Amino acid sequence: MTDDAPTHEAPAIFNSKTRPQSADDEISNFGKVNYLEVTRHQHDQRLDNFLLNRLKGLPKPHIYKMIRSDEIRVNNKRCKAHDRVQREDVVRIAPVVLATREKPIISTEFAKSLLARVVYEDDGMLVLNKPSGIAVHGGSGLDFGVIEAMREVTGKKYLELVHRIDKDTSGLLMISKKRSALKVLQQHLVDRTIQKHYLCIAKGQPALNEQRIDAPLLRYTLASGERRVKVDTQDTQSKESQTDIIVHGRFMLAAQPVSLIEAKPLTGRTHQIRVHLAHIGHAILGDDKYNVHDKSGVHRLCLHAWRLDIPGYETITAPLPDEMADWLPEDIKQPE
Predict the structure, then answer these.
(1) Where are the domains of the chain?
(2) How many C-beta atoms surround the C-beta of residue 90 within 10 A?
(3) Which residues contact 312 (CB under 8 A, 6 or more apart)?
(4) Cβ(91)–Cβ(35) under 8 Å?
(5) Which residue in 166, 309, 322, 326 is the catalytic one?
(6) Which of 45, 65, 153, 199 is spaced 20 to 30 A from 321 at the CA atom?
(7) CATH H superfamily, domain 192-325
(8) Are both 108-179 and 192-325 of the same fold?
(9) 44-86 pLDDT, tens per residue?
(10) Single pTM value for the model
(11) CA 305 to CA 274: how far, in whole Å?
(12) Nearest Cα to Cα of residue 212 among 266, 255, 134
């Protein structure tokens, strides 16, 4: 935390006309300065995530620009995106010049289909079997993502993503219903005590049935502004990354040798499984970023978040979606 990071005592800077509103309530007028008081529901949340949830529809780069430009202050102090807000902190948001979107309109059919994909729910968490092609949150040109849609269709004021999976990846997505559950689950992720298992169909046929890919990953940006990840053993900014893989079957698809592979990321880097498999010569089918010369003819990223092992919970699974399962020959079964 820097010297000018937020303190955790809200200063007395308000008169009766400028009392902060609760951060639980939606902002009604983005054209004026807004003061939001952090509640227990946002306690210890990163500032950028706090703002993304309050300024729905505003592109993420614009929010980061507001923070850098001192248009966002916490307890009347400068702040950084990674700072964490605390209960009773007061967040000042300058007038938002960029037009914001209205609340997303969720069709009845889509709402029903999304709710039908909840594979686990208790008082603190629900787990959704996310379809491929839907982002987990809105922004960057998207009206809404899974989290905005779930808030809208359930009417729940507090729902937060525990983690993220790529837009084109299908499968298990954890969503917290309580701040306390979010903190416990995210601590499990930090401690690496939650094991995620993915199933994918990749090009080629690895010689080994089991292996660990240990290759550091570096995030970088293309000239177009698009973010990518690569294996880089030289750059000091690279982050250590490991993925265990198990081959569950080898077969032919569109006259090309392919494999059904289980991938278990031991670290949680962006695009980790996709980049690691491409690095060893077995890129995932349908991957338009890391398998650009794909000749399989498939029309989706063949990566599915299949299983979650969470301390204190029974194992949670979601079988392969039909569009992936249908490509498996009869003699190859997906693991249970």
Answers:
(1) 21-93, 108-179, 192-325
(2) 21
(3) none
(4) yes
(5) 166
(6) 153
(7) Pseudouridine synthase (3.30.2350.10)
(8) yes
(9) 889 998 998 888 767 788 889 899 988 999 998 999 999 999 9
(10) 0.73
(11) 13
(12) 266
| Among the listed residues 271, 284, 270, 264, the one whose alpha carbon sits nearest the alpha carbon of residue 196 | 264
Instruction: Report how far residue 53's alpha carbon sits from residue 76's, in angstroms, rounded to the nearest whole number.
Output: 21
| Token pair recorded at residue 62 | 């614009």
What is the 3 state secondary structure string of 211-275? EEEECCEEEEECCCCCEEEEECCCCCCCECCEEEEEEEEEEEECCEEEEEEEEEECCCCCCHHHH
Instruction: Using 70 as the pLDDT threshold, list the residues of the chain that sit under it.
Output: 1-18, 57, 97-105, 138-144
What is the distance between the alpha carbons of residues 63 and 98, in angstroms, rounded to a whole number?
Answer: 10
- 166 is an active site residue: yes
Q: What is 21-93's CATH superfamily?
A: RNA-binding S4 domain (3.10.290.10)
- Please answer whether residues 213 and 245 qualify as being in contact, where contact means their C-beta atoms are separated by less than 8 angstroms: yes
Tell me the fold of 108-179. Pseudouridine synthase (3.30.2350)
Tokens of 231: 């294996």
CB 268 within 8 A of CB 189: yes
